[in-house]
């Protein structure tokens, strides 16, 4: 069966999507998820939004975030989104800066999608282009990351769903240091197009260019003003290459770009007073023979990859083949593409979809990755992945380069099941395998796709050596040595412990000539320093805050604890200041999330569609037990919201969620199991009993049951639900709104009223019928029957341009038509909707006559002032007040310190007790920039602080001590076990620790295992010393035992022989024993301060008895983690810690110590008359002889960092307790907070003063060899 269309490209997309739709959930439902994101974002004209927002703020006399505007005649602001100018309504990030327990074997640390990587030759510097969060930089081999131009707004124009923060590709010419790097960013992700059921990735707005952007100020706009947007607006730039011999960044520099709109050449010259690239389109080559080409018009075959081999340019064209040019794209010829022989690949087979390529290290062989359709005219025909080798890339006419297929390529099902055009990457290294003469050089090909199931979903990454026409598993890297279990899980596979969905593979070279392999995927960045050897990849995601948020929920009583549903990164909870954790039972995708309003240790989260999970799950039943081809699940939105409300009586909660109908439960956590009911659709004023239409096994029931509660009028799936009160629920459908009300006299009986539908009759002015291609959020006005409704602000979709394909002329793009507004107010008394004016708040940008479309995605009302409403859009958060007559004041931007990003969700947390001084927190979930919050209750001061416990945000005093992750009646947290104070043995040691006699296996004896791991990681850098035994760790143990030829070499255990060998051979960069070295440091970054997740995971105590850590009586290191609340970071050496300690035989005596004099002592260190250390306290001094231990790197809100202080406990008697008290401050906050109470005891000190934290430890003699004789 063939698929026809007037636009072959659209027809092919539709056919491919039908195939993708048939994938199982475990193959990620990528098309449906992307469809949701497309529906959630709609048309986003970000260029016009940016320019118009500048004009709006300038016209209103508003400077950066509330400050005065620029003086007349001053240069225009580089960007309205920048660091905060003051503390009023100042936004700060709360993460995720990294997510622990991610999805893959070993539960690695993850972040959001990384589309491309550029890595320096030595692997120390790298740039990561994220999906929608811009470009990030690391100067320490991926240990930490910083955003580039993260608060910038690039000039944009009307033209589509475009964003400067949507990264398509990177081209970096590395200099001697970061300031010398010449960086080019092609914006727009591959596969982006504007269609209701199409791909979600955003288009680009040109090519960003900068010299040394990583050396610019964090709040600067580092990019050149010229981006080529006149040609490149609305397209995706998928690859760039520099013309050989071009002077990088100088006059006459030339770059070729492959885009979704064709090929472009950029030539650098003086434009006005500055050097800039001018971009011009290149002609398409003539159509090749079909087969093997697919046979569609060449204009629908956008280029997908580029590379030079010598001076010859090679280009991959989608489902068409590989062309080459000897004049930098002025003319082309085609490479001969051979396919695998029948019967695997019949003679009529054709190329299909995207292709990628890479050249070897010797620059003399080219490899191409792609796929072949064995019957292009039949759906579901077998697809065969191919790797081609072009062994003669320099062939001279009349000869042409020939691409021959290699054997033993992984199957399509194992490489990229249904996701070839989304997940694809290739890189090639070359090494000498025989000395010769002549030396034998062997190419190693690394290819990647989407996912493969082992013990979890892992990345489908493979490594093969090229041997003639065959791909063979790379020896020592991806092979399975006979008689062993430590090799690859499948021949060639190396993707274990890496998040699925790979977009980029890059290489670097170690000092010894071996290779580093870098991976960019939907889980961020992973790196192997050992040639990509299986089980040697480590996550490199600390600080890479690129998670794609969907829904956010606040804990009912904790100002700290929150939950997040994320695209392709599951459902997460906040477990630190900026560290979040993926819940074990909630991996995969993540949609709506909610806390039970009473039994708050119960959380619910959506996987996709009608699949909802709960944790804990022992007393939970899903509303739908989704089965294959489940009609209700198929009719549901891929993601949708969920809502809970506390009932007035009975200490109960009520939860509602939506599929294509509304489900509620009243007894989650109170009945085993809980029960569900569907709310009915009724005639006006008629009350009908809610009931369960999927009884028993929760599977699909009769047609009548499946139709129960599904409204007519073509409303589509539910987008979200919101409670107006415990008996009134608003349900927002894709194309309408329904209100449900329960009878107070007859509980359980409900009536429904449709308030908005496609067939609504236009009312009399000034009331209107809302317009949108789809609606995005709804918010009831407390105490009324009114509500706010947000939408995309458009009435049609964007139609892309079609480039010229002689003799056919180019077809111009058609932008969408604007709706009347993006936020509407439903006035129940008037019986209809009113405009609020948000859609017209941005002034037109000349030469355009209309306001740019700024889709609204989220809306929330301030519960302390129900006349104040906040709306999140593609450009910002906006605020207005409702006034008399249900009119609205002019909208004002509400963006003090908030980076530009789509505001996907808005929530407000309030203290249910109403305690004086408690915060009121507005939270914004941003696409690819995490969650940000602002305190609406007061202007918060800049604060550098320590925490009493992990869920302490230092906003309420005395610090609340309940752990919100536990049931409400659980015992309180101890005040003397701060997670911000950790202790470990000092390094380097004189004598490595001795083996204690018991073999280590499967995680027994955690402290001993951690000790071994701190040394073993200097041999295998991927090892995370956390005291946990994983399958990957066991593989490395077996591998190393065999390398050493130890007795019982095949056993997966640490015995005395292995312990002794590793302790002796594992040395740091100075040749000292690596054991106990700070677990986050390595030879590349030997003085790196620890991060929050480092202290959380990689400092393990000897034991923890009743919240008292045990340590040894020896020289030790205390790590103190500092936090900072402000958008503006503290400069290096500007944050500091004072550490005090004392010991006693009695724990109670220590905890009763009067701490009144600690505050004036600390303050005396930052100014005023000096004071001696308080009596009875020991104060270790820094290298300069002062008590202030300074943090050598900047301290930012998004990245808490640790100061390490050495202390000698050898004189403390065995069994005694040691009280550690840390005091933290900074030049921005020099211990400035006033204590909220009397500090006569340790508990009062830490609970009433945000600068203080404490940990109680006990000390014991180390058995066996002493580390420091």
| Fraction of residues in H or I helices | under 10%
Q: End-to-end span in angstroms?
A: 81 Å
Regions with little confidence, pLDDT below 50 for 5+ residues: 1-49, 60-82, 193-199
Category from helices, strands and their pairing: mainly beta
Using only CA atoms, what is the Rg?
Answer: 31 Å
Number of strands: 68
What is the helix tally?
14
Instruction: Please state roughly what percent of the residues sit in beta strands, choosing from under 5%, 5-15%, 15-25%, 25-35%, 35-45% or over 45%.
Output: 25-35%
- Overall mean confidence score, pLDDT: 90
What's the overall geometry? globular
Largest sheet descriptor:
6 strands, mixed
The largest beta-sheet arranges its strands as: 61-62-68-67-64-65
Explain briefly what this protein structure is:
It contains 14 helices and 68 strands. By secondary structure, it is mainly beta. A hairpin with an 8-residue loop joins β7 (167-173) and β8 (182-187).
Question: Can you tag this structure with a few keywords?
Answer:
1269 residues; mainly beta; 14 helices; 68 strands
């Amino acid at each position: 069966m063939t698929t026809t269309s007037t636009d072959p490209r659209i027809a092919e997309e539709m056919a491919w999507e039908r195939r993708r739709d048939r994938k199982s959930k475990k193959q990620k439902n990528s098309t449906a998820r992307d469809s949701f994101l497309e529906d959630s974002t709609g048309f986003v004209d970000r260029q016009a939004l940016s320019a118009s927002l500048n004009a709006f703020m300038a016209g209103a006399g508003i400077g950066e975030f509330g400050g005065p505007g620029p003086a007349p005649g001053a240069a225009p602001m580089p960007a309205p989104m920048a660091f905060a100018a003051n503390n009023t309504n100042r936004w700060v990030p709360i993460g995720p800066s990294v997510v622990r327990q991610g999805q893959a074997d070993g539960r690695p640390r993850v972040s959001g999608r990384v589309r491309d990587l550029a890595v320096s030759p030595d692997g120390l510097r790298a740039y990561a282009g994220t999906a929608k969060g811009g470009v990030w930089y690391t100067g320490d081999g991926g240990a930490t990351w910083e955003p580039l131009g993260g608060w910038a707004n690039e000039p944009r124009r009307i033209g589509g769903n475009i964003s400067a923060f949507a990264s398509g590709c990177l081209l970096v010419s590395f200099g001697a240091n970061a300031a010398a790097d010449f960086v080019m960013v092609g914006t727009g992700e591959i596969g982006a197009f504007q269609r209701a059921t199409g791909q979600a990735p955003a288009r680009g707005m040109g090519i960003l260019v900068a010299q040394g952007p990583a050396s610019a100020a964090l709040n600067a706009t580092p990019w050149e003003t010229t981006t080529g947007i006149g040609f490149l607006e609305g397209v995706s730039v998928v690859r760039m290459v520099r013309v050989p011999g071009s002077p990088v960044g100088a006059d006459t520099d030339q770059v070729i770009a492959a885009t979704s709109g064709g090929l472009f050449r950029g030539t650098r010259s003086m434009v006005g007073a500055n050097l800039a690239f001018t971009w011009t389109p290149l002609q398409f080559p003539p159509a090749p023979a079909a087969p093997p080409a697919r046979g569609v018009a060449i204009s629908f075959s956008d280029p997908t990859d580029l590379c030079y081999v010598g001076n010859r340019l090679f280009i991959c064209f989608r489902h068409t083949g590989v062309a080459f040019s000897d004049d930098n794209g002025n003319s082309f010829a085609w490479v001969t593409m051979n396919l695998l022989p029948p019967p695997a690949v019949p003679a009529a087979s054709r190329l299909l979809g995207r292709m990628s390529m890479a050249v070897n290290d010797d620059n003399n062989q080219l490899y191409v990755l792609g796929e072949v359709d064995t019957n292009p005219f039949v759906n579901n025909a077998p697809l065969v992945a191919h790797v081609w080798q072009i062994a003669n890339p320099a062939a001279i006419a009349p000869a042409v380069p020939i691409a021959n297929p290699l054997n033993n390529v992984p199957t399509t099902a194992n490489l990229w099941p249904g996701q070839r055009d989304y997940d694809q990457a290739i890189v090639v290294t070359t090494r000498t395998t025989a000395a010769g003469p002549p030396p034998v050089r062997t190419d190693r090909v690394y290819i990647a796709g989407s996912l493969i199931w082992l013990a979890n979903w892992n990345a489908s990454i493979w490594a093969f050596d090229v041997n003639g026409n065959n791909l063979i598993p790379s020896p020592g890297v991806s092979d399975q040595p006979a008689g062993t279990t430590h090799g690859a899980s499948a021949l060639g596979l190396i993707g274990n412990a890496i998040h699925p969905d790979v977009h980029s593979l890059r290489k670097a070279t170690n000092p010894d000539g071996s290779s580093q392999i870098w991976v960019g995927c939907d889980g961020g960045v992973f790196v192997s320093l050992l040639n990509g050897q299986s089980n040697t990849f480590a996550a490199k995601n600390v600080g890479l805050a690129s998670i794609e948020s969907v829904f956010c929920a606040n804990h009912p009583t904790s100002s700290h604890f929150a939950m997040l549903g994320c695209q392709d990164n599951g459902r997460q909870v906040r477990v630190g200041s900026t560290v979040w954790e993926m819940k074990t039972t909630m991996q995969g995708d993540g949609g709506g999330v909610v806390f039970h309003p009473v039994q708050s240790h119960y959380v619910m989260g959506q996987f996709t569609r009608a699949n909802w999970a709960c944790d804990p799950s022992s007393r939970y039943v899903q509303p739908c037990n989704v089965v294959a081809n489940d009609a209700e699940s198929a009719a549901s939105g891929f993601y949708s919201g969920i809502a809970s409300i506390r009932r007035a009586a009975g200490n109960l909660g009520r939860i509602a969620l939506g599929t294509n109908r509304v489900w509620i439960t009243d007894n989650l956590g109170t009945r085993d199991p809980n029960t569900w009911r569907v709310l009915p659709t009724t005639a006006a004023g008629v009350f009908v009993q809610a009931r369960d239409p999927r009884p028993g096994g929760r599977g699909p029931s009769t047609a009548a049951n499946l139709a129960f509660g599904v409204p007519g009028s073509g409303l589509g799936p539910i987008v979200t639900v919101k409670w107006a009160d415990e008996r009134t629920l608003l349900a927002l459908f894709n194309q309408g709104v329904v209100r449900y009300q329960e009878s107070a006299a007859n509980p359980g009986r409900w009536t429904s009223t449709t308030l908005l539908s496609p067939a609504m009759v236009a009312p009399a002015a000034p009331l209107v019928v809302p317009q949108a291609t789809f609606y995005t959020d709804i918010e009831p006005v407390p105490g009324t029957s009114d509500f706010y409704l947000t939408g995309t602000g458009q009435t049609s979709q964007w139609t892309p341009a079609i480039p010229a394909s002689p003799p056919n002329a180019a077809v111009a793009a058609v932008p969408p038509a604007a709706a009347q507004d993006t936020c509407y107010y439903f006035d129940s008394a008037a019986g209809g909707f009113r405009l609020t004016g948000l859609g017209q708040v941005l002034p037109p940008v000349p030469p355009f006559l209309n306001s740019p479309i700024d889709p609204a995605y989220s809306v929330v009302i301030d519960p302390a002032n129900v006349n104040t409403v906040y709306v999140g859009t593609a450009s910002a958060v906006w605020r207005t007040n409702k006034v008399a007559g249900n009119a609205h004041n002019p909208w004002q931007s509400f963006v003090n310190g908030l980076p530009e990003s789509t505001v996907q969700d808005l929530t407000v947390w309030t203290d249910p007790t109403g305690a004086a001084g408690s915060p009121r927190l507005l939270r914004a979930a941003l696409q690819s920039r995490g969650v940000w919050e602002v305190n609406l209750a007061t202007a918060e001061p800049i604060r550098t602080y320590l925490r009493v416990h992990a869920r302490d945000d230092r906003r309420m005093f005395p610090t609340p001590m309940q752990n919100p992750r536990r049931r409400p009646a659980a015992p309180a947290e101890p005040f003397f076990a701060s997670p911000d104070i950790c202790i470990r043995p000092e390094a380097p040691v004189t004598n490595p620790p001795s083996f204690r006699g018991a073999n280590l296996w499967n995680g027994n004896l955690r402290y001993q295992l951690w000790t071994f791991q701190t040394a073993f990681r200097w041999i295998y850098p991927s090892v995370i010393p956390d005291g946990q035994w994983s399958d990957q760790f066991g593989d490395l143990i077996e591998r190393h035992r065999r390398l050493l030829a130890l007795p019982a070499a095949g056993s997966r255990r640490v015995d005395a022989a292995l312990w002794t060998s590793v302790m002796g051979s594992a040395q740091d960069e100075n040749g000292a024993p690596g054991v106990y070295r700070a677990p986050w440091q390595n030879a590349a970054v030997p003085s790196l301060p620890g991060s929050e997740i480092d202290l959380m995971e990689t400092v393990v105590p000897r034991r923890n008895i009743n919240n008292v850590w045990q340590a040894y009586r020896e020289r030790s290191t205390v790590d103190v983690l500092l936090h900072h609340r402000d958008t503006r970071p503290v400069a290096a050496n500007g944050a500091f810690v004072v550490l005090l300690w004392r010991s006693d035989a009695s724990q109670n005596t220590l905890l009763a110590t009067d701490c009144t004099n600690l505050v004036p002592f600390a303050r005396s260190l930052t100014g005023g008359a000096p004071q001696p250390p308080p009596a009875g306290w020991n104060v270790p001094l820094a290298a300069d002889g002062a008590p202030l231990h300074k943090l050598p790197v900047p301290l930012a809100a998004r990245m808490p960092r640790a100061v390490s202080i050495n202390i000698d406990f050898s004189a403390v008697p065995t069994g005694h307790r040691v009280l550690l008290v840390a005091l933290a401050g900074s030049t921005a906050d020099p211990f400035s907070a006033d204590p909220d109470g009397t500090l006569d005891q340790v508990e009062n000190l830490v609970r009433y003063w945000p600068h203080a934290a404490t940990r109680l430890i006990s000390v014991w003699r180390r058995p066996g060899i002493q580390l420091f004789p």
